[in-house]
Amino acid sequence: MPSRSIWSPKTSRRTGNLLYLCLNKEENDISKVIITLICIGILILVGEVLLWRLFYTKIVDMHFPPSLDCSSIRFFSIRRMHIAVIVHAMLLLISTLFPLWLLW
Amino acid sequence: MVKYTHAPADIVFLGKDLDERCHFYFRQHWIRLFWPLIRVIAWSAFVGMALWLFVGIFSIQDASLRYITLIFLAMTWMLAHFLFLTSIYRHFLYIIVVTDQRVHRIKRTLVTHNDHQTIKLQMLQDIHKSQHGLMQNLLGFGTLTLEAQETVLKIHFTPRIAEKYERVLHIKEVERSRNKHNVP
């Protein structure tokens, strides 16, 4: 199948042109890339949800008010931890899938 | 002056008696998360360097080899982050609760461990704190050792150990004097 790009692979690979790598994906490559990225994305989400559920089942039967907390880190309540885990999952998704898409 | 307040009645955890009142609770010092943080940074640097070397500089021409390399690096990156997340969860599942009657050490992990060790304040024979090394003295953490007749409870990485030591001593003395007055 002919390449859609105007750049030659040799030149662009040598100069490390990420834009070339991003645009110069052949059609059969694109479907393969998308399926792989979706699989990795699902794996990340399943991992994050599984770890959170395991943590939540262990911590849910212990209720302590924040006023009695004498730890060195007092910021993270259960709700704040949940928000932090969602943010972490989003950042992990972006930081894994975006470079993979670029460098495929 | 440390303010000693009794907790509201809605504090719940497994192993707590109904008439037991919580004074305070704490987790280990944040320094325990330092090594997992260093580990995840090192793994991330390794993945970044490997991407730069194999995909950027040497630019693997073989499609399948490139595919395998990218998948391997993505999995390594994911695993490093999941291990870091597990360390954080484990840190939050290790809780020491000091009540008017007992000191509870609740140590759980995500899957394998579920420990609960308690020591009665009445039975306490000796309490001592130890801080060894520059880091422990600079950051104010250390090991709190509670000794009863046949039990020794060591609480490592206790944050602000001097304050905790004073508070446990104070609670013990208050409870001892209360029990003396209650004896007919």
Describe this structure in words.
The complex is a heterodimer of chains A (104) and B (184). Chain A has 104 residues and is mainly alpha-helical. Helix content of chain A is 69%, strand content 0%. In chain A, helix 3 runs antiparallel to helix 4. The two termini of chain A are 17 Å apart. Chain B has four helices and seven strands, in the order E-H-H-E-E-E-E-H-E-E-H. Chain B has helices at 34-57, 63-92, 134-139, 161-182, and strands at residues 22-27, 94-99, 102-108, 114-120, 126-130, 142-147, 152-158. A four-stranded antiparallel beta sheet of chain B has the order 1-2-3-4. A three-stranded antiparallel beta sheet of chain B has the order 5-6-7, with helices on one face. Chain A binds chain B through residues 13-14, 16, 36, 40, 43-44, 47-48, 51, 54-55, 58-59, 61-65, 67-73, 76, 81, 85, 88, 92, 95-96, 99-100, 103-104, and chain B through 5, 7-8, 10-14, 22-27, 29-30, 51, 55-57, 59, 61, 66-67, 70-71, 74, 77-78, 81-82, 85-86, 89, 92-93, 95, 97, 106, 108, 110-111, 114, 141, 159-160, 163-164.
